[in-house]
Write a structure and sequence with these properties.
The chain is α+β, with helices and mostly antiparallel strands and 423 residues long. It has nine helices and 13 strands. A six-stranded antiparallel β-sheet has the order 3-1-11-10-7-8. Strands 2-4-5-6-9 form a five-stranded antiparallel β-sheet, covered by helices on one side. A two-stranded antiparallel sheet has the order 12-13. Strand 7 and strand 8 form a beta hairpin. It is elongated. The termini are far apart.
């Protein structure tokens, strides 16, 4: 196998950080060819023929031994990446080998849980990067991430979270900005130790470019700092991986970390390809999913706006129609009111005419009694009614017993003959 002239340097840190117990684990090896695991921070090293490896695992299970699961995962990967096992056939198909190694780590965790009931339910995420030749092969299962920063390309995600929230982003139902603060962003859909079935890791390969900085981390970092914050920190600390690591660490703590944190870095100093913006082809880049989500969100907003406009137009039409009918109804009532008044006026006139007729009839009766030869006079409906006469002044007279008689309703006084009594 031919060697290459890639020169690189590494740095890492793993601690409990925001929690009392550390369930994270990691391993870096700057030379898989010498069968001796380890590295020296910021030491410039030539990449060997079998490459270099970075591994980060985030254990899950709390009291059920999450740190045991992550430790088993790291140890299994180390067993698979010993010098004697990295044959030419293996190196010819790196992603296939990485996938098999991750599945083996999953099986080892499950076997331990089976013989140790107190650790039942434990699990771990995993992300690893194998620097080999002029490429980097990235394998992962869960939501621990692998990033690449390059001055010409910016920050790219080389891994793609196996999580519920990431699925929402991929479906265009959520933007990356909203995903960061989503209450369910800790729900992962794949992991090592999952009792539902064998692990289903992903693996992808990418070219290595000069000035690439490969970052592996647990969600203790990327769950506290946003991608743009991570990018800015790396951009400001490219000359030393230790300084870069410490800057990320301090920012994570200042932001109020709440989880274990692991940071692993490798920088390609020289020997890689030259990066240009045309090289930004990472299939796991956040740009694609974010743009898609933003487009869908914009379409939803547009639909809401159009729906609102249509609603307002319909409302105006309904109000205008109601106003129109209200005017017609009001006009109809206005036309009927005079008729009611006329009917009521006719009733009053008819009542008054009846009263006059009755009074006329009474007058005729009285006249006929006083003057028998004078015919009584009655009024018909065709005669013009006469205004009622004012009440007559009562007349006084004496009846047969010598009593005074008051006659109402007539001006005539009936004289009663009575014998004269001499005193």
């Amino acid at each position: 196998m031919k060697t290459n002239n890639i020169l690189f340097r590494m740095a890492a840190r793993c601690e409990a950080a925001g929690r009392p117990n550390n369930e994270d684990n990691y391993q870096l090896d700057d030379n898989l060819s010498d069968n001796s695991w380890g590295f020296t921070a910021d030491a410039e090293v030539s990449l060997g023929e079998k490459g270099a490896l970075l591994v980060v695992c985030d254990g899950m299970g709390g009291m059920n031994a999450g740190e045991v699961a992550s430790d088993i995962a790291v140890k299994t990967i180390k067993e698979w990446f010993t010098t004697d096992k990295l044959t030419d056939a293996v190196v010819a198909a790196p992603c296939k080998y990485i996938t098999s190694a991750i599945v083996a780590a999953d099986a080892a965790i499950k076997a331990h849980s089976k013989t140790n009931p107190d650790t039942e339910g434990m699990g771990s995420t995993i992300v690893l990067a194998w620097l080999l030749g002029q490429k980097v092969y990235v394998g992962w299962c869960g939501d621990s991430r692998c990033y690449r920063f390059n001055p010409a390309l910016g920050l790219e995600r080389l891994s793609h979270d196996h999580s519920y929230v990431q699925e929402l982003v991929d479906a265009g139902k959520l933007t990356e900005e909203l995903a960061f603060d989503h209450p369910n962003n800790n729900i992962i859909t794949r992991s090592l130790g999952d009792p539902r079935g064998a692990a289903q890791p992903d693996c992808k390969e990418f070219d290595l470019y000069n000035q690439d900085i490969i970052l592996l981390c647990s969600d203790g970092l990327c769950g506290t700092l946003r991608d743009n914050e991570i990018a800015e920190l790396i951009k400001q600390h490219q000359t030393s991986m230790q300084e870069c690591r410490d800057a990320l660490w301090d920012a994570d703590e200042a932001a109020g970390w709440t989880d274990n944190t692991t940071i692993a870095l490798a920088q390609i100093i020289s020997g890689g390809k030259d990066a240009t913006t045309a090289n930004k082809t990472a299939t796991a880049s956040t740009d694609i999913s974010t743009s898609k989500a933003k487009l869908i969100a914009a379409n939803k907003r547009l639909k809401l706006i159009l729906s609102g406009v249509v609603f307002i137009i319909l409302l105006c039409a309904i109000v205008a129609t109601a106003y129109k009918y209200k005017a017609q109804i009001t006009s109809l009532f206005d036309k009927e009111e005079p008729a009611v008044e006329q009917v009521e006026g006719a009733d009053v006139q008819e009542e008054q005419a009846k009263q006059v007729a009755d009074e006329g009839a009474n007058d005729s009766e009285n006249n006929s009694e006083t003057n028998p030869e004078k015919p009584s006079t009655t009024h018909t409906d065709n005669d013009t009614p006469k205004a009622p006469k004012p009440d007559p002044t009562p007349e006084f007279g004496n009846d047969a017993d010598g009593k005074t008689v008051v006659t109402e309703g007539t001006t005539d006084v009936q004289k009663v003959d009575q014998p004269q009594t001499q005193e």
